[in-house]
Amino acid sequence: MGHLQLPPGKKIAVNLGTDFDAQSLWLGGFNRPSPSFMSRGQFGAEVGVPRLLELYKRYDITTTWFTPGHSVDTFPEQCKAVLEAGHEFGHHGYYHEIPPGIERDTERRLVDLAFATYKNVLGIRPTGYRSPYWDYSENTLDIIEESGFRYDTSLMARDLEPYHPQRWQINWEKGNVAGKASSVLEIPVNWYLDDFPPLAYTGVSTGMQDTETIFRRWRDIFDYAYERVPNPVFASCVHPQIIGQAHNMMWYEKLVEHIVSHDGVWFATCDEIAQAWVDDEEDERLMALPDVRGVEPAPADSSWARQA
Questions:
Q1: pTM of whole model > 0.90?
Q2: Cα–Cα 20 to 30 A to 78, which of 9, 14, 20, 120?
Q3: Which residues sit opposite 151 in a β-bridge?
Q4: Which helix (H) or strand (E) holds 2?
């Protein structure tokens, strides 16, 4: 596997990623367009975004905001403020759609619709993609490649090191077959470094957990990367409508202070991290594998087929 070529004097790359989903999260992710859920997205835009921008400015941190096109169209002034502060925008779908649940043509159309919004409102074309639901359809990786993205950040085959994602042929009663790796670089995501599952109230998820527990978890992951992994990437994910709550800002600021206290921390955008990656012979070998893919139907006598 290749390696991250960190700038001189740097020991770890840190991306404090922000998913600015606003109201689209409650549309594409939960199908809850009620005034209550829309108000939560409004809070994220009008309260959470300024709080995060102030925090990042105070510590001179530049990061990446993965923002659905719907958020850009709905809250253009807040998005312009993010851009003016020097942060990167990443592609995050249009209305926070769930890729495995839509057809290829729809997925492609929504990717392009978001591209048009980024261009028309912000005058940019993002170089990286994050799946709105941290999941792929059978077509997502193809669409990412066709769109010319430099990197993706949706998958989890590593935790603290980038890699090139592979296609897989999925079988039930014999082993899966690894296929061709993509030329796109994967900067892996991690549910343990996402504020939404442990802290958000949805009515069905656990949520609303003790903030001190979350702080210790994120701190410990950073410390492990810093102390034990060569040239690591610590890539976290926060949502303005969650982390922007007063009690969550307190532990998040404490985490930032902990990270800043370490020598050799490179606060970077995902695009900067992707450009610092150096492929090796193993990367090239994986990218030259046969293009096998597809999912075998569940066996007729499996519990899943019997439930269908």
A1: yes
A2: 14
A3: 128, 185
A4: none
C-alpha 240/C-alpha 209 separation (Å) is: 17
Amino acid at 77: E
Is 141:167 a contact under the CB 8 Å cutoff? Answer: yes
CA–CA separation, 106 vs 250, rounded Å?
A: 40
Handedness of CA 109, 114, 117, 122 (dihedral sign): negative
pLDDT digits (tens, 9 = 90+) for 59-99: 999 999 999 999 999 999 999 999 999 999 999 999 999 99
Kind of pairing, strands 166-170 and 177-181?
Answer: antiparallel
Q: How many CB atoms lie within 10 A of CB 177?
A: 15
157 C-beta neighbours (distance < 10 Å), count: 11
Within 10 angstroms of residue 46's Cβ, the number of other Cβ atoms is 16
Q: Which two tokens stand for residue 28?
A: 């594409």
Nearest to residue 24, comparing CAs of 117, 88, 103, 104? 117
Q: Which two tokens stand for residue 144?
A: 């990412």
Q: Are 52 and 67 in contact (CB under 8 A)?
A: no
| DSSP3 helix / strand / coil % (the chain, rounded to 5) | 45, 15, 40
HSE of 182, CA atoms in CB hemisphere, 13 A: 27
Angle at 125 between CA 120 and CA 129, to 5 degrees: 125
Q: Quote the crossing angle between the two packed helices 246-260 and 211-228, to the nearest 10°.
A: 20
Helices (H) and strands (E) in the chain, counts: 14, 13
Q: Is the dihedral of CA 87, 143, 23, 120 positive or negative?
A: positive
Q: Is 191 exposed, middle or buried (0-12, 13-18, 19+ CB in 10 A)?
A: exposed
